[in-house]
Amino acid sequence: MNVLLLTDKLSFGGAEIYFCKLENHLEHPDLKFFYAAGPGDLQNRIQHLDRYVQLKREKHYENLLRLKKVVKLNGISLIHANSLRMVLYGIALKMMTRKPIKLLYTKHNITWLELKSRRIFSTLMNGFVDRIITVSNFEKKSLLESGVRKEIIKTIYNGVDLEQFIFREKKEDQDFNVGVLARLSKEKNLEFFIEIARKCKGMKNVNFIIGGDGPERNKLENLIQRYGLSGKVKMLGSIKNPEKFIEDMDIMLLTSNREVFPMVVLESMAVGTPIISIDRGGISEALLEGQTGYLVSEHSTDAFYEKILTLFGDSMKHRELSIKARRRVEEEFSLKKMVDETLQEYLERKDFV
Fold first, then answer.
1. 215: domain range?
2. Residue 265 in contact with residue 277, Cβ under 8 Å?
3. For 61-83, what is the mean pLDDT?
4. CA-CA distance, 269 to 254, in Å (whole number)?
5. 256: helix, coil or strand?
6. Quick check: 138 and 265 in contact, CB under 8 A?
7. Same domain, 131 and 72
8. DSSP secondary structure code for residue 228 in this structure
9. Could you tell me which of 84, 168, 202, 276 has the fewest CB atoms within 10 Å of its CB?
10. Is residue 41 a part of any domain in this protein?
11. What is the largest distance, in Å, between two alpha-carbon atoms of the chain?
12. Is residue 146 part of a domain?
């Protein structure tokens, strides 16, 4: 059976990294894989260039004509879409080729269509998609509430490459680094991260470090200046090696307004850097309060400050969280587990195409 995986672009993001992981690691004697995506910073991660098609942004009709040829020439019988737009591409390709192609959709985030009309979204899913893979049970519950049929939904958690994100014991150091790794966009709520740094202004040798780039950069830089935190908060820009950034932190924070199941939580757990996270989306499915990290129910600087203070002053608790977090990732959230479960989804449809 031949499978075509689609994603919008290869810019730095959760869905795009997920696509690259599958492109790098999918392998099975009964399956052959083909890939298509728009350009982006992650293009250099693509390994199977002989089976890869680069799409053009906003050139949807041209893209569909190219993909139609790929589908016909290679006998594609299953399409795995990684965005709502790619679901629409998949539906269009089924109609254009008049072939009984199976359509899978890994849903990474809340879509514009859900925000506009949950009823239209659920009708589209129920009518055209054979399997929706959710990355958390929180998202699965949300789909059920929207009216999507239970039998087409399956949760497969994102997986961490344990050979890339290696566990490291923290060394005692004079400096204590508190980090955040995220796209500098409004929904990541990094203004709140700076507010936490302001709350911790009196803590000596505690540094706050922001990794990532995005449209909110200038606004955040101005806020740092206005609060007089230039010596306390550093912005590093785009991060090429996230594992090294996380390893260099003593604590990671997650302050987003909205999340589904962010990879940075699992990556921090894998490396052994304790994470203090806002309790949103499916984060609590990975991060167990007080056992593998800390969850904070509301955006309270006092609550985050108290957790930072605890880990700053208690090296034994810091180490305990680190070890338990790594063990949990190894057991439940490995890349191998994610790839194996995804392959099983393909194979279950092999006899029906």
1. 176-332
2. yes
3. 96
4. 13
5. coil
6. no
7. yes
8. T
9. 202
10. yes
11. 67
12. yes
H or E stretch including 102? strand 102-107
Amino acid type, 87: V
Q: What contacts 32, CB < 8 A, 6 or more positions away?
A: 1, 2, 3, 51, 74
Per-residue pLDDT tens over the stretch 269-308? 999 999 999 999 999 999 999 999 999 999 999 999 999 9
Nearest to 330, CA basis, from 292, 275, 277 = 292
Instruction: Give me the pLDDT at residue 115, please.
Output: 87
Domain co-membership, 184 together with 110:
no
Neighbouring C-beta atoms of residue 216, cutoff 10 Å: 20
Instruction: Note whether 346 and 324 are same-domain residues.
Output: no
Q: What is the pLDDT of residues 155-187, one digit of tens each?
A: 999 999 999 999 988 877 779 999 999 999 999
Provide the residue type at 217 as one letter.
Answer: R
Residue 237 shares a structural domain with residue 293: yes
Residues 340 and 328 in one domain: no
Alpha helices (H) in 227-334, listed in sequence order: 242-248, 263-271, 301-313, 315-332
Q: Where are the alpha helices (DSSP H) in 129-271?
A: 137-146, 190-199, 217-226, 242-248, 263-271
Nearest to 264 by CA among 160, 110, 191, 108: 160
Residue 12, Cβ neighbours under 10 Å: how many? 18
Residue whose structure tokens are 């991660």: 45
Q: Give the residue among 134, 322, 317 at the shortest CA–CA distance from 143.
A: 134
User: Which residues, other chains included, contact 232 with Cβ-Cβ below 8 Å and sequence gap of 6+?
Assistant: 197, 200, 201, 206, 207, 208
List the 294-296 sheet strands across, edge first.
Answer: 233-237, 206-211, 176-181, 251-254, 275-278, 294-296
Same domain, 268 and 143: no
How many domains in the chain?
A: 2
Q: Is residue 266 part of a domain?
A: yes
Cα–Cα dist 21/44, whole Å = 13
Q: Is residue 43 part of a domain?
A: yes
CATH of the domain at 223: 3.40.50.2000
Nearest to 64 by CA among 85, 33, 34, 39: 85
- The model carries a pTM of 0.89
Q: What would the two tokens of residue 93 be?
A: 């390709």
**CA dist., res. 131 & res. 104, Å (int):** 5
At what angle are helices 263-271 and 315-332 packed, to 10 degrees? 120
- At 14, list the tokens: 């959760």
Q: Express as a percent the part of the chain with pLDDT over 90.
A: 91
User: What is the number of other CB atoms lying within 10 angstroms of the CB of residue 171?
Assistant: 6
